[in-house]
Design goal:
Elements lengths: L1 H21 L2 E6 L16 E9 L4 E10 L5 E4 L5 E4 L2 E11 L3 E8 L8 E10 L2 E3 L4 E4 L7 E3 L13 E3 L6 E7 L7 E11 L17 E4 L5 E11 L5 E8 L9 E11 L2 E4 L6 E5 L14 H10 L21
Length: 331
């Protein structure tokens, strides 16, 4: 009788565990190094850090075995501290006493050959929790052609991408204002957008405040970089690809020697999260001649023609351009 009761309890526990496992959600995310772009890997001997996230599983287990699916000729898996390397594509975590399944864990891969410009992927093939095997569908792809993120300092309403990437030098108390565009996302429904800002060669948090106006959620990374995210109900991106505007408060002087850069960015929609190409998402600071509306370092006829096109407009007009409001009176 005791044995039957034990077997019944074990079977019920297994069924509950299997039910939790089937309700579990698993995802993979590439964690790029400083100054690197998410989803982009270059060279040979380059470390790739991939993080596994799980939600929905609260069961405690004695063993976790993860098998990845990837091209063994391109990359090599290395077991993290505390894990056993139980195969070229498999790592195992053992515990004497049952412990909760971690919410996330990071795993390192090393490129065996030069993968610059070469498309490849790493996916989860299977995860075994004690005796229950899960077959997930999580995958992270590398070196795919990514939609580009554009910045624009020429603020307009409605927003249009002018690809203006230069700002005047900044001092304490000034503001930095720019708009963000992803033209390839036009017409798509997105649910979230996030990106990380860095100041090349400097700790950004010493020069720019984390207090950002609007609905942005912000956090300061250990590196001093600023992460911003915007979540909302699904909305359709306009034809311009406009995603939002950022107003930053300057807490330290910024000169022509400084570059404000986006180090990573992604948009999330119904089909998942899409990393963005941020290679051109940089702002520089320098001297701007009054009247140099096309920012080519000269004031000439093209600048005059640009000014004539908006002459007589005021704040709130569709064609109003604040860059040409030289005395700042709104007209």
């Amino acid at each position: 009788m005791i044995r039957k009761n034990y077997l019944l309890m074990f079977t019920l526990t297994l069924l509950v565990f299997a039910g939790q496992a089937s309700a579990q959600q698993l995802s993979l995310k590439h964690i790029p190094g400083d100054g690197r772009t998410e989803g982009v890997v270059l060279g040979q001997g380059t470390e790739i850090v991939v993080e596994v996230f799980q939600t929905g599983l609260t069961q405690s287990v004695n063993a976790i075995q993860i098998t990845f699916d990837f091209d063994l000729s391109l990359v090599t898996l290395a077991a993290p501290a505390g894990w056993l390397q139980t195969g070229a594509d498999t790592v195992t975590l053992l515990s004497v006493t049952a412990a909760p399944v971690p919410v996330s864990a990071r795993f390192s891969f090393m490129t065996n050959v030069d993968v610059t410009g070469r498309e490849f992927s790493i996916s989860l093939k299977s995860i075994t929790l004690d005796v229950v095997e899960i077959t997930p569908s999580a995958v992270v792809s590398f070196n795919s052609v990514l939609p580009p993120l554009h910045l624009d300092t020429e603020i307009e309403s409605p927003a249009q991408n002018n690809n203006a990437l230069t700002l005047p030098k900044k001092r304490l108390g000034d503001t930095i204002v720019f708009q963000l565009f992803v033209p390839d996302a036009a017409g798509q429904d997105i649910r979230a957008f996030e990106f990380e800002l860095a100041l090349q060669g400097k700790r950004l948090s010493n020069y720019i405040s984390s207090n950002v106006s609007g609905s942005w959620l912000t956090s300061v990374e250990s590196s001093g970089n600023l992460s911003l995210s915007l979540s909302s109900v699904p909305h359709s991106v306009p034809s311009s690809g406009y995603l939002g505007q950022v107003d930053l408060e300057v807490t330290g002087a910024l000169t022509e020697a400084d570059t404000l850069m986006v180090t990573r960015a992604s948009v999330a929609g119904a089909s998942g999260t899409q990393p963005l190409d941020v290679s051109s998402a940089e702002l520089s600071f320098g001297f701007l001649c009054p009247g140099d509306f096309d920012k080519n370092g000269m004031v000439n006829i093209p600048d005059f023609l640009l000014f004539v096109k908006v002459f007589g407009t005021s704040s709130g007009d569709a064609t109003f351009n604040a860059l040409m409001d030289m005395d700042g009176n709104g007209a």
